[in-house]
Amino acid sequence: MTKENVILVNENDEQIGLMEKIEAHEKALLHRAFSVFILNDKGELMLQQRALHKYHSPGLWTNTCCSHQREGESNISAGKRRLQEEMGFVTELAEAVSFIYKAAFDNGLTEHEYDHVMTGTYNDEPIINPDEVASWKWMDVQAVKDDITENPDQYTAWFKIIFEKFYKHIKVDR
Fold first, then answer.
1. For a tag site, which of 8, 72, 80, 165 has the least CB within 10 Å?
2. What is the pLDDT of residues 96-144, one digit of tens each?
3. Average pLDDT of the residues of the chain
4. What's the CA gap between 60 and 29, in Å, rounded?
5. Own/partner pairs, 12-21, CB within 8 angstroms, 24+ separation
6. Complete DSSP assignment for 25-37
7. CB of 101 closer than 8 Å to CB of 111
8. From CA 60, how far away is CA 62, in angstroms rounded?
9. What mean pLDDT is predicted for residues 55-75?
10. Following DSSP, what letter does each residue of the chain receive, concatenated?
11. pLDDT at residue 170 greater than cutoff 80
């Protein structure tokens, strides 16, 4: 398996170096990341359940896809790449919001990310990659918000943080 680097950044999202992904998470260093939120024409959000063998947050529900940009890769290109790799489709994406968050996990790893949230529209079924995704579903945005409140342990740490910030950026006009 090829080691994957992440882009270390400062609080202004300026690149300050590269580091192997696991090492950056062990050291809780700030690095660039992205999260993609895909909605359909009904205003439903496509959620994915992380594969059960993931090294953190296995089996938890989260946004459509997320990962880390590669050096020299734009946010949009990175989002489209991971949509294809995880969910088996590509659609146009737009940047919605970006912010810094930090979330520690029980396994000693910490996500400390300058996260770029992107949105897109898609109306078909994905062709999920079972190495990345256990399941998927469409869910009404308000129902997601309510379910996070009622069942927070079923969602990834970053999704709960991002969803609160992202919620006001969702266009629910029907």
1. 72
2. 989 999 988 888 889 999 999 999 999 999 999 999 999 999 999 989 9
3. 92
4. 24
5. 13/98, 13/114, 15/71, 18/71, 21/68
6. HHTT--EEEEEEE
7. yes
8. 7
9. 94
10. ----EEEEE-TT--EEEEEEHHHHHHTT--EEEEEEEEE-TTSEEEEEEEPTT-SSSTT-EE-SEEE-PPTT--HHHHHHHHIIIIIS----EEEEEEEEEEEE-TTS-EEEEEEEEEEEE--S-----TTTEEEEEEEEHHHHHHHHHH-GGGB-HHHHHHHHHHGGG-----
11. no
Residue 51 has what pLDDT? 95
User: Distance between CA atoms of 109 and 163, rounded to whole angstroms?
Assistant: 21
- pTM of this structure: 0.92
Between CA 115 and CA 75 the distance in angstroms is: 10
| Rounded Cα–Cα distance for residues 36 and 21 (Å) | 19
Model confidence at 19: pLDDT above 60: yes
65 is annotated as an active-site residue: no
From 44, 65, 66, 111, the catalytic residue = 66
pLDDT at 173: 45
66 classed as catalytic? yes
Distance CA 38, CA 53 (A): 24
| % of residues, the chain, pLDDT over 90 | 79
